[in-house]
Amino acid sequence: MLPLALTMGDPAGIGGELSLRAWHILRDTEHCFVVLDDPDRLAAMAGAIRCDVPIRVVADAAAAAETFRNALPVLPVRLAVPAVPGRPDKANARAVIESIERATALAVRGAVAGVVTNPINKAALYDAGFAYPGHTEFLAALTGAGGKQIMMLASPLLRVVPVTVHASLRASLAMLSTEMILVAARTAHAALRCDFGIARPRLAMAGLNPHAGEQGALGDEEGKIIAPALAALRADGIDVSGPWSPDTMFTAAARARYDVAICMYHDQALIPLKTLDMDHGVNVTLGLPIVRTSPDHGTAYDIAGQGVADPASLIAAIELAATLAERRAAALGSTT
Fold this sequence. Notes:
Blueprint: E1 4-6, H1 15-26, E2 33-37, H2 39-48, E3 55-57, H3 64-67, E4 72-76, H4 93-108, E5 115-116, H5 135-143, E6 150-154, E7 159-162, H6 169-175, H7 178-194, E8 202-206, H8 221-235, E9 239-244, H9 252-255, E10 260-263, H10 266-277, E11 282-286, E12 292-295, H11 312-334
Parallel strand pairs: 1-2, 1-5, 2-4, 3-4, 5-12, 7-10, 8-9, 8-10
Antiparallel strand pairs: 6-7, 6-11, 11-12
Helix pairs in contact: 7-8
């Protein structure tokens, strides 16, 4: 199995210490990875948080496998100025972007099995020319999949796909369309079959309004926008139910009836996922030619550099990326 590539994330956030702790926990497992980061920063961080992690600079991703059990392999991406925990510096924005670009390039050419991205602060990157709403859109542009990317949040308890993502609630309601719902649902269905190994995925479609519109009394989007999508998906042979009342579809009994919830906007999807399983939630980008996952949390500037950040979500992201990459490789092998 090829190694995964971990990106730097915001150097003022918790990404570096999470990478260090993830190596410490996973070094004797099959989950090998190489970090695209500043080795001096990582070494200093390891000392500061008292995490005994030897750092080894490698020339390429292929060297990571033979290095991983004894030291954390690093492909150097040098910072412009020393990072100060909790204090993002626009001088280092170029290094953050470079880390993402290089990791993605490695995955595209097959040198790594996939990419796991540490959290970034988009506002801190704008001065360096970052013009994307988030990681998801940037990775889509880098891989030539612009417009095809779909965000899934996955944990052992729940999978959710928001149809509209990084937009205000007002803008999300204005842009929601039957076609957007179809793209999200079809992409999720294909990914569940190919990457997650579910032979016949069950999709649950959330309503937009309280009580799924109460038959039009509380809004007509369910009839005008969502119902046509449901009809088209069923015509495709997809097992989809709904529209579900959003306030009852995330109970334990309800979750047992579907494999993914297709939600109409960002918070409708992410609030239940993070409430149920914040520590093990993973952000998965569907619709890309590469595997990409990320921990489901932010930069956590308030605790950066203190050695208290929990690596559980990053470890879950690494483990899921490895599983998805293995399934993709097996699927490709079965078709050749």
